[in-house]
Design goal:
Blueprint lengths: L2 H20 L1 H4 L4 H6 L12 H27 L2 H27 L5 H12 L2 H17 L2
Helix pairs in contact: 1-4, 4-5, 4-7, 5-6
Length: 143
């Protein structure tokens, strides 16, 4: 791939991540958005239709993961890095989903934990960790 094409494609993928975030109210069921914008430390967690919320989180996570994996491939152009990143995304999803719904169901008094676990699930934060780490790994392999 030419470098100019990679840059343009990477930029388009970044715009896709922004679009997922910008259209979150339309695309996903998430009653916790309004909850976490308010004084959530003083209020109980609102009632959530958990099955619907799980599938909404799954859809959003899959969209963010797919776009992120394309970004990893665009930068590194090696399938083994994408495969490794995909494994990490699956493991993190399983751990965070179990933790998230456990915290929700037991009304954890530390709602900030719930907030940050949810943030890992709904935002492409892993990309900011994995991409530099995998890029560094690729650079050290050349030595």
């Amino acid at each position: 791939m030419k470098l100019s094409f990679k840059i343009v494609f990477f930029f388009l993928l970044a715009c896709c991540l922004i679009a997922v975030r910008a259209l979150e109210d339309i695309l996903f069921y998430d009653p916790l958005i309004a909850y976490f914008h308010g004084e959530y430390q003083l209020e109980p967690v609102p009632d959530v239709y958990q099955l619907k919320y799980f599938f909404s989180l799954l859809l959003r996570y899959l969209l963010n993961t797919g776009i992120s994996l394309l970004m990893v491939y665009t930068v590194l152009t090696k399938k083994s890095y994408v495969k490794f990143a995909a494994y990490i995304y699956v493991i993190i999803f399983l751990i965070c989903t179990i933790l998230f719904f456990t915290l929700m169901n037991f009304n954890d008094p530390h709602k900030l934990t719930l907030f940050y676990v949810r943030r890992i699930l709904i935002q492409p934060l892993l990309l900011f960790v994995l991409l530099p780490a995998l890029y560094y790994q690729k650079q050290t392999e050349k030595i």
